[in-house]
Amino acid sequence: MGTHSLNLLPKAFPPTLASSLRPNLLRFDSTRHRRSRRQNLSIRSVFTGIVEEMGHVKDLGLADHGGGGFDLKIGARVVLEDVKLGDSIAVNGTCLTVTHFDTEAFTVGLAPETLRKTSLEELERGSLVNLERALQPVSRMGGHVVQGHVDGTGVIVSMEAEGDSLWGKVRADKALLKYIVPKGFVAVDGTSLTVVDVSDEDSCFNFMLVAYTQLNVVIPTKKVGQKVNLEVDIMGKYVERLLLSMNNNTPQV
């Protein structure tokens, strides 16, 4: 990579990843973008939302190959055990492709579109991230089906302890909140969680983290006001699509 961290970028660059998305980096070929979106409709990898380990950001900066992308280098241990070039690893719930690796870290590429749609723009050198390898046919489904296709971001509203458990409350856009139901699943920064309650009035939902989970995911390390990646349960989308299709095909009397 061209830099060791965004903080070490030349002074001409803003100090944060979010602000370094200059207008020229946000322009892209619309035809290529549409073609890319069609290709991404096929599911290449599936995750479970059971975080395997927390990695840490070692380097973050503009990609050497140009084109307006970024490279993200993450220190890890468990996910490197059988990694290969081209493998998919979920980083805070975002499915990313391994472009380089060694015995201590791996590198993935970040497109400007990925940064616009996820909370990865807030990462900096030293940030902790949730990591999970793609599901294999022999793996147990410990959480729920997570595609690694982030639907949007939410904002942490509160974190409150109750005994050794931790209550988390997240505000989400109403367009996403409609797919989130009490006792249902939601992936928060790639962690499969059970929703406790949903408030349409506040546009929020909450969840509880037990002591073990608190020690093994990044959510408790974040502060109120920070973003989290959200992926809603895909089953809700399928049901909505099916009902819309049935209504559109209903003969008019």
From TrEMBL:
Gene3D superfamilies: 2.40.30.20. Signal peptide: none annotated. Lumazine-binding repeats lie at residues 46-144, 145-243. Pathway: Cofactor biosynthesis; riboflavin biosynthesis; riboflavin from 2-hydroxy-3-oxobutyl phosphate and 5-amino-6-(D-ribitylamino)uracil: step 2/2. The keyword Mitochondrion does not apply. Residues 46-144, 145-243 form the Lumazine-binding domain. PROSITE patterns: LUMAZINE_BIND. Transmembrane segments: none annotated. Its EC number is 2.5.1.9. NCBIfam families: PRK09289.1, ribE. This is Riboflavin synthase.
